[in-house]
Amino acid sequence: MSVLPQETTVSANSSTAAAETRAAKLMKRRSRIRFYEIIVWIAAIAAYFLLPSKMLILTEIAILALFAVSLDLVLGFAGIVSLGHTAFFGLGAYVAGLMAQHYFAEPVTGLIVAGVASGVLGLLTSFLILRGSDLTRLMTTLGIGLMMAEVANQMAWLTGGADGLSGFSPGPILGMFEFDLFGKVGYLYCVGVLFIGTMIMRRIAFSPFGLSLKAIKGNSMRSAMVAVPARKRIVTAYTVAAVFAGMAGALLTQTTAFVSPDVLAFHRSADVLLVLVIGGTGYLYGGIFGAILFTLVKDWLSVITPQYWMFYIGMLLVILVLVGRDRLSRWVEYLPERLSKKEDR
């Protein structure tokens, strides 16, 4: 009779070990680089050689992509809808400009400082989104963005006010690579930061931490019941997203040598949300695909109809809402899903 409890304990331990092994294998399979991801980065490098006259628009795509991927970390994984993500983007842009103008012109240093400053703002404001519904969070984040825009406009002695901040020139990257008029160095710099940022956020998203974010997104109360610290997870994800949004703003300042209150305008938050609507949320690369499509379509429409291109962008958004994001995104999801299934076999 005394053997039975021991056998039960051994059986339970072996079942737990087997479950942990299966979970480890699943996490490893989920986190490995997919074939389509490799294609994305090869295409980014190939564009440098194949499209030398398009460096400026490609740089714009890379910056917007980093901004969108940072938002996807909180929207697609934690389910936090934000209309004020531009606050971090704009703060990073201004910090990078002020660093180049008054302190240290080396771009990577300015990039890191801008990211840290935006991360601090993200940490301080993250506690405002822990309570309430999605509507409350929308209004709260929107208010933060509007306040930051007004601060930048009123502190003209520091930010240049409505005229913006100019008269500075970023130095060579790491003291070796100077920005050129054709934008080639700037493009490689932005793609490099986008790659590193995406890989870091990808590692976070496809780790146990990322799975806990998805659990919180699905049902925060049930997650709390199984000892998932939802508040800490949301604060951490929001802060990390703010860091990379600030870096995206810093890249814009460093590649254009100018920053104005436009970096804090509401339309930037609307644009980045539209990018994720087009590209999809919850797998990070939707921000990259969406940034490519959105920028190219906007550029094409602005050439064909300079006065009414926003009308057609709005029409696209209405179609996406009426028809359904899932139906229109199948062309984006089809290839990654098929390739992922082949790799998992």
From TrEMBL:
<dbReference type="InterPro" id="IPR001851">
    <property type="entry name" value="ABC_transp_permease"/>
</dbReference>
<dbReference type="InterPro" id="IPR043428">
    <property type="entry name" value="LivM-like"/>
</dbReference>
<keyword id="KW-1003">Cell membrane</keyword>
<feature type="transmembrane region" description="Helical">
    <location>
        <begin position="87"/>
        <end position="105"/>
    </location>
</feature>
<keyword id="KW-1133">Transmembrane helix</keyword>
<feature type="transmembrane region" description="Helical">
    <location>
        <begin position="142"/>
        <end position="160"/>
    </location>
</feature>
<feature type="transmembrane region" description="Helical">
    <location>
        <begin position="308"/>
        <end position="325"/>
    </location>
</feature>
<keyword id="KW-0812">Transmembrane</keyword>
<feature type="transmembrane region" description="Helical">
    <location>
        <begin position="111"/>
        <end position="130"/>
    </location>
</feature>
<feature type="transmembrane region" description="Helical">
    <location>
        <begin position="57"/>
        <end position="80"/>
    </location>
</feature>
<feature type="transmembrane region" description="Helical">
    <location>
        <begin position="234"/>
        <end position="252"/>
    </location>
</feature>
<keyword id="KW-0472">Membrane</keyword>
<dbReference type="GO" id="GO:0005886">
    <property type="term" value="C:plasma membrane"/>
</dbReference>
<feature type="transmembrane region" description="Helical">
    <location>
        <begin position="272"/>
        <end position="296"/>
    </location>
</feature>
<dbReference type="Pfam" id="PF02653">
    <property type="entry name" value="BPD_transp_2"/>
</dbReference>
<feature type="transmembrane region" description="Helical">
    <location>
        <begin position="35"/>
        <end position="51"/>
    </location>
</feature>
<feature type="transmembrane region" description="Helical">
    <location>
        <begin position="186"/>
        <end position="213"/>
    </location>
</feature>
<dbReference type="GO" id="GO:0015658">
    <property type="term" value="F:branched-chain amino acid transmembrane transporter activity"/>
</dbReference>
<protein>
    <submittedName>
        <fullName>Branched-chain amino acid ABC transporter permease</fullName>
    </submittedName>
</protein>
